[in-house]
Amino acid sequence: MNIHPIVVHFPIAFLFIWGLCEVLPVSKWFSSINWAPIKNFLVVIGFLGGWVAQMTGELAEELVGENKLVNTHSAFAQASMILFGIFAVEVIVIYIKNKYSSIYYKFGILARIIDMCLRLLQNKIFRILLVLLALIAIFVTGVLGGAIVYGTSADPLAPFVLKILGL
Questions:
Q1: Domain span at residue 63?
Q2: Can you give the pLDDT at residue 140?
């Protein structure tokens, strides 16, 4: 039984909406809303759901069989998880740092390295580039997944993406 198509859509939606909230000025458009907890929820739950989707995808791969299209879909799914995972881990580390700061700073050089990484992620240009890469990765993953299930001509963007990827 293949439950991958059932599991995969919510993480994609959560992560895609989170990415849009990161690159678009939603906090200026809707300034009365505190976006931080909403975005934190979207990226952490989206990442955890993506992890489940990735596990079910590996099971589905056994049903479909390996081929170049499936392997490329899997590679883009993994890239998506790594990129979005960076931001999910950022949320968790900031929570730990704020909640348990006395313990956090006992880690000395490790805490300083983590702080450097957090500062890098706060660099607006770097952050937007990473988010855009994550959005592109999840978009391509979805297009390839659709091509696997529905064929290469069902989605009007699939032939274009497949041509770019040489598939």
A1: 4-165
A2: 96
Mean residue pLDDT across the chain:
92
For the chain, first and last CA: distance in Å? Answer: 27
The whole-number pLDDT of residue 66 equals: 82
CB of 74 closer than 8 Å to CB of 46: no
* Tally of structural domains, the chain: 1
Helix runs in the chain, H state only: 4-23, 26-29, 35-64, 68-99, 101-104, 109-122, 124-150, 158-165
Contacts of 154 (CB under 8 A, 6+ apart): 146, 147
Cβ atoms of 144 and 76 within 8 Å: the answer is yes
Q: Which two tokens stand for residue 159?
A: 């032939």
Q: What is the pLDDT of residue 149?
A: 86
All residues at 6 or more sequence positions from 57 whose CB lies less than 8 Å from its CB, including other chains: 4, 8, 74, 77
pLDDT one-digit tens code per residue, 121-142: 999 999 999 999 999 999 999 9
